[in-house]
Amino acid sequence: MQNRSAYRGLRAALLTCGAVLGLALCQGAGAHGGLSIDDDMCKLRLGPFNMHFTGYQPAINGNREFCEDIPKVGHTIVVMDAMDPELREMPIEVRIIRDTGDERQLDAITVAHLPPKIYESGSVPLEYSFTTPGRFVGLVTAGDQGQYTSRFPFSVGIPPKRYGFYLLFVGVALLGFGLYRYSGMKRQRQMADQI
Amino acid sequence: MSLHLRMPRRGLSLSLLLAVMTFASTLVPVPVAAHGERATEPYIRTRTVHWYDVTWSTQQVGVNETVTVEGKFHLFTDWPDAASKPELAFLSNATPGAVMTRVESYINDMPAQQSVSQLEVGGDYSFKLVMAGRVPGRWHLHPVLSVHGAGPIVGPGHWVEVTGSAADYKLPITTMTGEVIDDLQHYGVARLQLWQAGYALIAVAWIFWWIRRPLIVPRWNAIRKGREDLLVTRTDDRVAAAMLVLVLVVVIFGYHHATQKYEYVVPLQAGSFKTKPLPLPPPEVAVQMKDATYDVPGRSLRLDVEVTNQSDSPMRLGEFTTANLRFLNKSLAVALAGVDPSFPKDLVAGSGLKLSDDSPIAPGETRTMRIEATDAAWEIERLVSFLTNVDSRVGGMLFFFDAQGQRHMVEVFGPIIPVFTQLQLAQRH
Amino acid sequence: MTENDRAILKVSELSPQAIGWSRTLDLLIIVVAAFLIWSVSHISFLLLGGDWDFFIDWKDRQYWILIIPITTIIMAASFQAIFWNLFRLPIGATASLLLLLLGTWIVRYHSWEGLAYFPISLVVPGTCLMGALVLDAILVLSRSWLVTGMFGATLYGLLFYPANWTYMAGYFQPVMNMGDMTSVADLIGYVFPRAGTPEYIRIIERGTLRTFGDTPTWVSAFFAAFVCIFLYYLFWGLGVLACNARFFPVGERFKSLYGAKGAKDQTAGGPVTQPGASS
């Protein structure tokens, strides 16, 4: 009986730690509208097509790449690369708007705009300097009638919530506590054996 | 009584002092000065890399000041089978430790921070080493080509005096991310030592927690009497659990802090670069070695060669060079002029080159001649052990000069036989 | 002296005089054992870990992360087994790594800086000390070599990289040198020449590990952890073997050689095994 409870204690502690670690490691894989990490690549879904999305802040972060949220305000370069050849033959329009919740007056809330154009090289570069932190929405439209659209909200200069990081500490505390409990149970078992 | 007591005591204190001094002498670092450039087997030194036109920009530098060693090297066609071919090599320098620092190094004007691969046997390459003084002293500075599988092949060395104070040496750099590093030789050390001291402190506390109690005999007895429950208590469990959590928290926090602070890092660079041999015109002289002997007691290398002048200008032999030793034809001014004033005198043989026939070789003429290179340097430079090597062959470069003073470099190589003729002659007289 | 200490002394049934002597013996053994652990850990590490620990431009993402934990855990496990089996002292791994670190620093200053003029930034060592503490702590909590190997050795292998990255990350910042991009570590290795250590001799990552989102380091760390588990068991076993020292009976011929024949003989008979040396 004691034996079983000792192992149950150990197993519970390990399962908790495993779950916490798993959560911590998975923190980067959240989906953002049409933007997601898929096969180790940041992808933008545009109807049946895909574009590879990369954000850079060379002056602030060197050649580090971002998928969705831009970490700091300042000079930002976003490059979208066509993954399907069809995208090279249709006009693509890109618009970044402030996320006000109301998109009827599109021009009024637009901060950056690339009018429809055919990109033969397959790369659509967009440069913009964000001056204030906040929430924005990217709108990408492709096709002669603009039939393929993608909408992805993102934040600029808002530090990400590090739940995963804090969860690691919770996991460590649980591991210590779990092993301590396990040790106590084992001790009781040994005493019971001696009696 | 007192005398009896004092004597052994003095003896004891003397021997104690001696012991302490002996022990202390092992703790005081004694730097070495030489670096065994003569230790490499002669078949490697005479038949792999031939350094020529080597110059030293100065022989005295202050700390932080630079000296440039530059010149060319020829990779010998008769490369010994016992050593690997120069598939992968690194341009280095020989100094006793890091007394001088490497500022820049180039092979064929290409940056040589990494190794160079696919060098071609028979080809010529230029090199340049820029070194800065760091530790004051008189140091022997050589260029070195380290060849993978053949070892370091040392070029000619010259004494360079570093003056000033070692404390003044400083190497500030700025990283591509904009961090300014005041001095590369101390970079990161204090931070690392502080952290490791912190780690060590936890470890010392942990060990002290255990060894402060009755240890060896009582614990041993307690185990034999089945009372190990006394040896590791519930309090110990608590301390162990707390330490486990502490260690993991410290590691996670430290790692997180470092990845935040140094977001942009690169792995160690491990590629090699490639470069073609220098485009030199082919020599217009053909040389065939007929016979080679080394007169052991006479310290004389004799080569019987067949020379064909393929140019339309008369040629004279000006220099024979091998293993960084230079034997010059003293009657040929253009050959003497080829020795840079900065070139170390100890590598230029005093007696020079003796030729059986020094008259110009006419265009189209084929002549058999004897070349004698006699000098104590063969012995001093430990070059005669080629007589006991697995590969008893000799090689070197012959520098011919045409009427316009144009230099034609030709390889000469072949088997060599040791003889004692000169000694026999001396005894006969 | 705590209540627990008194209980241990009571159980050990030492006379009051012997208790005093036993403490002197403790101190002597601490000193002797420290030198022994130090030298054994250091020599084994020099033979097996060597260059990866010597130079900053050998500390790559692949072999350094893998080799340092697996070459240090062998002595950590052996000493842990010896101290635990004979005295229930969970300090073997920590002592091995702490003394190794101390010895390493002495050599760095005495030989590397003193004899070869290498700057300390070229020869900074890494350490598995944090892993060793975890190994000892888990042994206390689990009191089982099986559990310690499974979880302690895993953490031992895993912790090496993050615990050392804390202060070594800065060495891997990019820097320009002669028009090439390189790391600060590479630059330190280039600037301060090691005549007998050409660049190509480095056994470092050659760029075939670029999976898992450009972070091969953690792949190496997990592999190190995996190997550590097996090496821990193997060398724990070696430690246990070392605890079973045996005294063999001295033969008649040996005794007559040393003039001990005829003396009162208590060692004759079967081999006397030290008790209490089970795992």
Give a structural overview.
The complex is a heterotrimer of chains A (195), B (429) and C (279). Chain A has 195 residues and is an alpha+beta fold. Chain A is 33% helix and 35% strand. Chain A is built from 4 helices and 9 strands; from the N terminus they run H-E-E-E-H-E-E-H-E-E-E-E-H. Chain A has a 5-stranded antiparallel sheet. Chain B has 429 residues and is of the alpha+beta class. Chain B has 8 helices and 23 strands. In chain B, strands 2, 4, 7, 9, 10, 11 and 14 form a 7-stranded mixed sheet that branches. Chain C is elongated, with a radius of gyration of 24 Å. The A-C interface holds A 10, 40, 62, 179-180, 182-183, 186 and C 138, 140-143, 147, 174, 212-213.
Quick structural gist:
The complex is a heterotrimer of chains A (195), B (429) and C (279). Chain A has 195 residues and is of the alpha+beta class.
Helices and strands in order:
The complex is a heterotrimer of chains A (195), B (429) and C (279).
Chain A: H1 2-25, E1 35-38, E2 41-46, E3 49-56, H2 58-61, E4 74-82, E5 92-98, H3 106-109, E6 110-117, E7 123-130, E8 134-142, E9 148-156, H4 163-194
Antiparallel strand pairs in A: 1-2, 2-3, 3-4, 4-7, 5-6, 5-8, 8-9
Helix pairs in contact in A: 1-4
Chain B: H1 2-27, H2 42-47, E1 49-56, E2 60-62, E3 66-75, E4 88-94, E5 100-107, E6 110-111, E7 116-117, E8 124-133, E9 137-147, E10 151-154, E11 158-163, E12 173-174, E13 180-181, H3 189-211, H4 216-224, H5 234-261, E14 273-274, E15 285-295, E16 300-309, E17 315-322, E18 325-328, H6 333-337, E19 353-355, E20 366-374, H7 377-380, E21 393-402, E22 407-415, E23 417-419, H8 421-428
Parallel strand pairs in B: 2-11, 7-14, 15-23
Antiparallel strand pairs in B: 1-3, 3-8, 4-7, 4-9, 5-6, 5-8, 9-10, 9-11, 12-13, 15-16, 16-20, 17-18, 17-21, 19-20, 21-22
Chain C: H1 3-12, H2 16-48, H3 51-54, H4 63-87, H5 92-113, H6 129-142, H7 145-168, E1 174-177, E2 180-183, H8 184-191, H9 216-243, E3 246-247, H10 252-257, E4 272-273
Antiparallel strand pairs in C: 1-2, 3-4
Helix pairs in contact in C: 2-4, 2-5, 4-5, 4-7, 4-9, 5-6, 6-7, 7-9
